[in-house]
Amino acid sequence: MEPKIHTGSIVIIKPASEYKVGDVVTFGQNTKTEVPTTHRIAEERLQDGNKVFLTKGDANNAEDNKEISEKDIIGKVFVSVPYVGYIIDFIKKPVGLLIVIVIPAVIIVYDQIQNISKEIKKMMKKRRTKSKTDEKENSKNDFNGQPKSGDDMKEKEI
Predict the structure, then answer these.
(1) Distance, CA of 120 to CA of 132 (rounded, Å)
(2) Which among 63, 62, 78, 66 is positioned nearest to 26, based on CA atoms?
(3) Residue 13, CA distances (Å) to 53, 76, 77, 138 in order
(4) Residue 123: partners with Cβ closer than 8 Å, 6 or more residues away
(5) Can you tell me the distance from the alpha carbon of 102 to that of 97, in angstroms, rounded to the nearest whole number?
(6) From residue 28, how far is each of 10, 38, 67, 69 by CA, in Å?
(7) CA dihedral in degrees (139, 145, 150, 155; nearest 10)?
(8) Residue 73 burial by CB count (10 A; 0-12/13-18/19+): exposed, middle or buried?
(9) Cα distance between residue 67 and residue 55, in whole Å
(10) Helix then strand then coil, % of the chain, to nearest 5
(11) What are 15-26's pLDDT values in tens digits?
(12) Distance of alpha carbon 16 from alpha carbon 39, whole angstroms
């Protein structure tokens, strides 16, 4: 569809109530083994009371051999986004998946583990500091939790 839609672009399509000559449409099967085609409607005619279209890629010299019916059309091209198709194709391959999804995911998980570890160390340090403070407080108190007075200390010395 060069020059309107560049190789490696993705198209965003939108179903329409009707299609006419000049519309760029996407049609065909969308399965794991088949990819839909995006071409311009070059000719429209009625066959047995139903609309059929002949399409042609902008970069092609001749129209497509097969006529398509309105029910074969998935939608009309709304916008095309250049180069994104190359990225999607790369991600579909094992190496692409590894580079784009798995490696960043591992980095994020590693970073989160580091953050959790730092927080645990902070909590442990706070707990130890509080524990030492509590021990000092307890050593200044008698068994009933009351502060020890100097008189109590003298009595014990005698």
Answers:
(1) 18
(2) 78
(3) 18, 5, 4, 75
(4) none
(5) 7
(6) 16, 9, 11, 10
(7) -100
(8) buried
(9) 7
(10) 40, 25, 30
(11) 999 999 999 999
(12) 15
CB neighbours of 9 closer than 8 A, spacing ≥ 6? 80, 81, 82, 83, 84, 85
Say if pTM beats, i.e. exceeds, 0.70. no
Give the span between the Cα atoms of 100 and 89, in whole angstroms: 12
Domain ranges of the chain: 10-91, 93-139
Find where tokens 């902070």 sit.
122
Lowest-pLDDT range, 13-27, 41-55, 120-134? Answer: 120-134
Name residue 38's amino acid: T
H/E stretch holding 24: strand 24-27
Which CATH class for the 10-91 domain? mainly beta
Contact assessment for residue 28 and residue 37, using Cβ atoms and an 8 Å cutoff: yes
Token pair in block for residue 48? 């047995």
